[in-house]
Each structure stands twice: as C-alpha cells, then as structure tokens.
Amino acid sequence: MDPLITTATSRDAQDHAARMAVLPVGSFEQHGNFLPLITDTVVACLIARRVSADYGLFLLPPVTLSCSHEHSGFAGTVSVSASTLAAVVTDAAASLRAAGIDRLALVNGHGGNYVLANVVQQANIAGPRMTLFPSRTDWEIARTTAGLDTTASEDMHAGELVVRR
C-alpha cells in the first residue's frame, strides 16, 4: 500500500473518534524534467501525515487534481476549475460534519490553489470550522530553516535553483 494514502479502516476511524480531519491538497502538473507530476501532492501528504500524527487528526486521502492552469502547456498536467476544487472541499467538509467531524484542516501543496483561502473564509462565517496550512509565512520560515539561497519568487517551482558563475 502506498504510504502517502491513509490505510484507516472504518473501525480505526470509529475507535479514533477524531473531531478534526486533515485533507492534503496537491496538484498533478509538470515539475521540470526530473520531478514527478505528483510532487505537490507528495509534499501535501507528508505534511498532512505529520500533522495528523502529532495532533490526532483523521487523515484523509489527497485531492490530487487541482488548479494548475498556469502549467497547462506542459505534458502531463491535468487541472480542474477553481469552482470544482471549491466544491470538492466544501462537499468533503459537509460529509465529515454528517459523520461527526466538524473541523477540517487543509494542507495545500500547490501555490495555484488560491480558491482554498476563499473556501476557508466562507466555511468560517458561523465560527471556526476550517483552516488552511501552510501560509506564505510558514513557507518562508521553512525556506530559511532549510538554508535555501533563493527566495520564493526567484525559485517558486521544482526545487531550489542556484546559478553558479
């Protein structure tokens, strides 16, 4: 079984009785000639798995197809509309609420999924139900902690690029 996908059974979920779930959201797009199309999904899944383990959250399988229109000219990229991604997340949250899990943490691995911020804002009108992670600040802290030489605007895709002269 793929370690990026949850293997929880219905019994596991019942015994765990989590009040909050975590949903990794990635993409299926080009990442240069050396990284897989599913790179952003892998990043989101690894973060979500860690958050789930550290905080006892119900780990959901990833949303892999998302808003990658900016990569549509590259072979292998598959994208969905912002309204489709918003509907998938909103429907998943409603399904979780019906099952007794009233809060959802989104872990976004793809920068083009701007609509997720709007989905979270809308979901929280009546009170806190949904959160979005990581923020731009979180990414900057991670880049600094990792000792990366480039800024996010200099190298925003497919790993650090350092030009040596």
Main beta sheet: strand number and arrangement?
4 strands, parallel
Tally of distinct domains: 1
Categorize the overall geometry. Answer: globular
User: What is the fourth-level CATH superfamily?
Assistant: Creatininase
Query: How far from one another are the termini?
Result: 45 Å
Q: Report strand order across the widest sheet.
A: 2-1-3-4
Strand content: 5-15%
Q: Whole-number radius of gyration?
A: 17 Å
- What is the fold named in CATH at topology level? Rossmann fold
Total of DSSP H or I helical runs spanning 4+ residues: 5
Query: Helix amount, in percent?
Result: 25-40%
SSE order, as H and E? HEHEHEHEH
Low-confidence stretches: none
Number of strands: 4
Task: Provide the CATH architecture.
Answer: 3-Layer(aba) Sandwich
Global structural class? alpha/beta
Mean pLDDT: 89
CATH C-level name:
Alpha Beta
